[in-house]
Amino acid sequence: MDFDLAQTDALLSTTRAVRKRLDFDREVPDDVLLECLQLAVQAPTGSNQQGWRWMIIRDAEKKEALAKLYRDAGGEYLAAAADAADSGTQQGRVIDSANFLAQKLGEVPVLMIPLIVGRLTDNSANSAAGLMGSIMPAMWSFQLALRSRGLGSCLTTLHLGKEAEAAELLGIPDHMTQAGLLPVAYTLGTDFKPAKRDDVAKITYLDTYKNPIRPD
Ligand SMILES: Cc1cc2nc3c(=O)[nH]c(=O)nc-3n(C[C@H](O)[C@H](O)[C@H](O)COP(=O)(O)O)c2cc1C
């Protein structure tokens, strides 16, 4: 199969955390969400368990209740906004943007909560990777599929500090784990750019951690 590398590379490098450019006024049909989710469930899962479940939240009261849980849980992080937002740094812009989303979360057309069957049984890397690693790849595929259709999202986890309260609100059973909360909307424009990232050659090692693949 011949991929159009320019297109696939553009999709991979310009799928951003979208907050300020979410279109709060344009409706998002179920069909487009289901199409993107159908692509997302091509993602890998541990032992091919496919224990993913997807919650779409459109109800205005439920969205506002989730937004409040998000703000309550994220209090400390969000409070840093005032200090960091003016700093002009990439980090400052992220915090400012995160604060904007926190304030507006209840107004986003759709909130999506990905679920995975099971709970963490211990805090080993094996358990964490097995559980979250069986839902996060699908979440990212969902975001890529959204982007390719003119929609955007932002992977958020702040509300998980109030996971039990959110489960109660949405009737989620105790044996399920919430993996995050994705606000979903069409984007205002589609001209997103690649972000500044480290040169991977400087953080890649060959055979032993002492051996940078490209020594200076
Ligand atoms: C595990 C994880 C948790 C995140 N949690 C939040 C969050 O709770 N709220 C938020 O606004 N952004 C959250 N983000 C989005 C990051 O801030 C964002 O990906 C990062 O700033 C890089 O921006 P980019 O994705 O546009 O390159 C999270 C991202 C990841 C991967």
Q: Which tags fit this structure?
A:
single chain, 216 residues, alpha+beta, NADH Oxidase, five-stranded antiparallel beta sheet, 12% strand, binds flavin mononucleotide
Give me the CATH fold name: NADH Oxidase
| The CATH homology group name | NADH Oxidase
Which geometry do the CA atoms define?
A: globular
Question: Could you spell the SSE succession in H and E letters?
Answer: HHEHHHEHHEHEE
Rounded mean pLDDT is 95
CATH class type = Alpha Beta
Largest sheet, if any? 5 strands, antiparallel
Which structural category fits the helices and strands?
A: alpha+beta
Task: List the bound ligands.
Answer: flavin mononucleotide
Q: Give the CA-CA distance, first to last residue.
A: 38 Å
| Overall structural domain count | 1
CATH architecture heading: 3-Layer(aba) Sandwich
What is Rg?
18 Å
The oligomeric state is single chain
Strand content: 5-15%
| Residues in helix, % | 40-55%
Uncertain runs:
none
Give structural notes:
The protein has 216 residues and is an alpha+beta fold. It is 41% helix and 12% strand. It has one domain: NADH Oxidase, CATH 3.40.109.10. The radius of gyration is 18 Å and the shape is globular. The mean pLDDT is 95.
Give a brief outline of the structure:
This protein is an alpha+beta fold.
Question: Can you lay out the helices and strands and say which pair or pack?
Answer:
Blueprint: H1 5-14, H2 30-40, E1 52-57, H3 60-73, H4 75-84, H5 90-104, E2 110-117, H6 125-132, H7 136-148, E3 151-153, H8 163-170, E4 176-178, E5 182-186
Antiparallel strand pairs: 1-2, 2-4, 2-5, 3-5
Bound molecules: flavin mononucleotide.
Flavin mononucleotide (FMN) binds next to helix 5.
